[in-house]
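Hello forum,

I keep getting stuck at the same step: I have a sequence, I want structure tokens, and every attempt I make locally crashes halfway through. Rather than fight my setup again tonight, could one of you with a working pipeline run this one for me? It's a single chain of 547 residues.
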Amino acid sequence: MSRVCILCVTLLTCAALLLTVVVLEHIQELKAQLASLEQTTARLRSQLHSTQLQHGSEHVQWQESVDALLDGHRHWNWNLLVRDLLQPFGYVNEQMLEGAVRACFDNGTMYCTRLQVSQGRLYVTDYRAIFFDRHYAPSRVMPLLDLLRRHPDLPDVDLVVAAVDEPRIKTLVHRKWWTRTCKRWPGEGGLGGGGKRGELPPPLFSSTINRAHLDLPWLDFSFFMPRRDHKLRTPPWSVLHPKMVRESASVRWEDKIELAMHTGNTMSPFRQKVVAAAKKRPDTMLVNELFIGDHNKIKKTCHELGLERKGGYQAHKCYMTFTEQCSYKYLLNSASIGYANKFKYLLLCGSVVIYVQDGMSHKEFYEHGLLPGVHYVSVPTANDVPAMVEMLRRNDSYARAVAQAGRARMSALDSAEASKFLAELLTGYSKLQTFKVRPHPGSARIDCEDDLWRHYARETWFLGKYLMRDNATCIHPIRPSASLGPPGWGGAYNGSKVRCVASHDLLPHAQPDACKKYTRWLGGTSFAPWDAFPSAHPEDRTRWRDI
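Reply #2:
Ran it on my machine without issues. Output:
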């Protein structure tokens, strides 16, 4: 090999060695950089984890604070409310109860009864139970029946329950009304035109109350709707309350539609104003008109028809499920004809309830434990709703706080809590009584819900539609092995019926001749005098005790 070739090979070998050394040094440098990066990454991961733990802890603490605040809304102080309610009465005597019974016959009273608890037993004497409203007559007695089942140690009480839309014992300070009040209940000082000497205003129990009346609150019939299908379709509170609490929790605040919504009838003049406001400002309001008669005609929901986000006014096109109603951020509570009892349902939605004051002069018992601006918001008239919606949109965190507080407050008012209120009220009431409670000789004893359905039935088909036959509501528990049969079928029913004079409006413009003699169309009806057990008329061939 020539010297030149040997030299070339040597140079190439040296170059290769030199390149190898350079590459190895570069690799070492890269390894060092990689190790440094791994250390930095580990440090950053540690810092990130620490930050996440800190933020997570802060979030947990924030959520715990929110839960604690909401928990404060879940407790009711019935003792304080009851003290205020009973304050107008220094005592309750038998003469005052006789005055309450006379008030039962005021024109327009659809239901009025005397309820007596004596030694843990319930006795009913009906003075008004209009025949076409029998589907909901048991709902007026069920609050006390349920109370005795839950609180068997309830003291003896004697009370008159009107349970109609509006309070009756007016004490409004007005030239016309005050004169009427003094004539009717003249007290010890004089003899009035319609009252007796010494007579005082009676403690009549009504579904709603206000400060211009002396009525005491009774649970509205919607708390104890029939457990079977009925024309209003609303389930009893014991069923609907937990269902709405559960379903409303599934609707996220961020997904709610930012309209103030009303669905239902709009026949009252106050709701017609709501309709007018919605037509004028469809960007803020939606009124979906729906009547009871529409239930069997309208088959699709507003969501199914794509009408739930369309503001303004729409009539008889679609209905909304409770969950769909809860999909609105703002819900309207406005005055109906008589009294609207939907406030409690709206509050359960977790939406802001906008309470339109115009026409809303009466309240249910629980409303006295709610605060405007905290559990709901209030506006004077329907025309003020759009401005309120705009304010709530601008202050979404406040709106959400009101919605959550209202829902928390009402979620605590289950059937057991409502019964606690009534127990507190009647215990306080019993202490005002100046007499020993003795069952009225013309009363009927009631132990179970089915006793009420049998008592109020005029036709046999009525029993087939509403009897429960489960005895789950009985005051005195029935042994599982007990053999049930007539006449009580586990309850206390013994053939009683509502008296004809309590079933019909006998005024000249109504049915003045309805009770002159028994006819078949009267069905299960009693003609017994007030001081005798109200058995069915002898000409009624139906064997009511055996059904």
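The radius of gyration is 35 Å. If your local run keeps crashing, start a new thread with the error log.
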